[in-house]
Amino acid sequence: xxxxxxxxxxxxxxxxxxxxxxxxxxxxxxxxxxxxxxxxxxxxxxxxxxxxxxxxxxxxxxxxxxxxxxxxxxxxxxxxxxxxxxxxxxxxxxxxxxxxxxxxxxxxxxxxxxxxxxxxxxxxxxxxxxxxxxxxxxxxxxxxxxxxxxxxxxxxxxxxxxxxxxxxxxxxxxxxxxxxxxxxxxxxxxxxxxxxxxxxxxxxxxxxxxxxxxxxxxxxxxxxxxxxxxxxxxxxxxxxxxxxxxxxxxxxxxxxxxxxxxxxxxxxxxxxxxxxxxxxxxxxxxxxxxxxxxxxxxxxxxxxxxxxxxxxxxxxxxxxxxxxxxxxxxxxxxxxxxxxxxxxxxxxxxxxxxxxxx
Amino acid sequence: xxxxxxxxxxxxxxxxxxxxxxxxxxxxxxxxxxxxxxxxxxxxxxxxxxxxxxxxxxxxxxxxxxxxxxxxxxxxxxxxxxxxxxxxxxxxxxxxxxxxxxxxxxxxxxxxxxxxxxxxxxxxxxxxxxxxxxxxxxxxxxxxxxxxxxxxxxxxxxxxxxxxxxxxxxxxxxxxxxxxxxxxxxxxxxxxxxxxxxxxxxxxxxxxxxxxxxxxxxxxxxxxxxxxxxxxxxxxxxxxxxxxxxxxxxxxxxxxxxxxxxxxxxxxxxxxxxxxxxxxxxxxxxxxxxxxxxxxxxxxxxxxxxxxxxxxxxxxxxxxxxxxxxxxxxxxxxxxxxxxxxxxxxxxxxxxxxxxxx
Lengths: 358, 358
Description:
The structure is a homodimer. By secondary structure, chain A is of the alpha/beta class. Chain A has helices spanning about 10-15, 35-45, 50-55, 55-70, 80-90, 110, 125-135, 150-160, 165-175, 175-200, 220-225, 225-235, 260, 275-285, 305-320, 340-355, and strands at about 75, 90-95, 100, 145-150, 205-210, 245-250, 270, 290-295, 330.
């Protein structure tokens, strides 16, 4: 979908490594339980899933943080596990335990039954949410669509939920690697179709979350996560020039692989806080944007301390980028937590803009 | 304490980077719940803490894995949190929730009250366990003593137990860094005294576990964890030549800091599975030993797959070490888990020796 002129196009310009008046900022999980208005909507919806599956409610919570903070993007409110849910695994939530699947996939037989869901029927609620949000956003800031990575989806699908040590999927990787590759291949097809459908529905930036790639050894990361991220970056059609929909590959623990990820052709890389931004920039060279990477726990500090941390991160980036702040999207290295103080979040957002004014 | 000749001195020779007939192996948490005989002893003891605090029982479980597997070392059975417990924080365990403290330290006032415990009174049960184990081991293999790192102890002391995001200690780091440095300084004094006392009681190798250093950003790691590890390596008296008691600094997520850690003067570095052993060897140079680093989840694979993984890790090390297997101590990148199969552990241990025969 052609993008009409945005009132605030900082994010898109930074993702194209073009000059901007100050560094754009958005925050992973910026729509979330730390906001009282989010908790209010959720109570009304009855459950997290009802909220995610009702486009008007998903739109409502997507816009909430924009009303409070001077954020440079909205991100679609949805769950990372919509794809496996649409594949029939039966996503559900147990209070305080995170996502679970009623029917996890455990072996080659389970995997053989999986198929890429139809995006405009089985995942229509996501595309409808994108359309409603775009309408309500009215081009104030761009809308980011997203998906879990093939490996990260596979982790939940095989483990049946979160996991401390990924025992089931790692056993599958050792005992039947062909079956796991089959699963990752289907997931990759689904992720590409899912992101393309979000783009067609109006998403102006796309991010892939490889939350669990960092749990792998280098040889397993290069076998089971990296090649599928590369395939997404290569095969996902996203236009060109000002009409291009940039792709951000975010990964927890991806620091050792930044050069390989940069070579994928992605428009941007998102990194966590275990690498300095200057180092990260030096590793990937200057042809793509970098997103990150304050430790979200810094938000537990006092506002003055948060401001100092923001300034250091901005300066670290510039130091590794030949003194320039271009090509940087400010974010946390992971999502916001429910016990964080909205005032501290506001202090962070304002500090990013204030300290990066050109 | 002078070390009498050991029947199996592979570990000590490997830690001195001397030739050995095959690569030595021991496993973090090798005495643990995955062994039925351990669960039996624990039932008899009544609780984990009773077992750790009764030297004869600590000795019993320390020796259990040696009766089953051809391991090249015993490691003292104890808890990582004995020091803060002796400082008066009140260590206790809630089934399924890990360690907790009745009286966590939260601010400068709490920290000002802390003192280094007396090793031969308040931690006498640990030293007695070392003495009993040395007697019962009868010099078959060396005994490894250990401590948590200053930062890792501080995490538990401030959080009051385990933590998902280290919100309290990171807030302290931002809001009152001087108080946190005071805590880390006391912890470092205590760790040095604790390891020296274990050495005096008979421990022949010493390991520091920096389990949570990897949760820090590079600038915070270099401020709050690294300098205290360096102080331990510099200040802990450990003899010279064949009488030297080698020190191993193990850290989860320490890959980005290996060169700085190697420069500390430690005898060996232990790494987790997020870096290849060949890479790790190239980064630290050839003057100290390297310990690691199979992903413990590989033990969920079938024995044949485990053997392949062991061979790859051994060969990766040699490839980064100019073709030589010297200076390598085989281990996992983290501890064994209760749901692991003892037969798989045996397959791993035997594979290390078989594939590394000189």
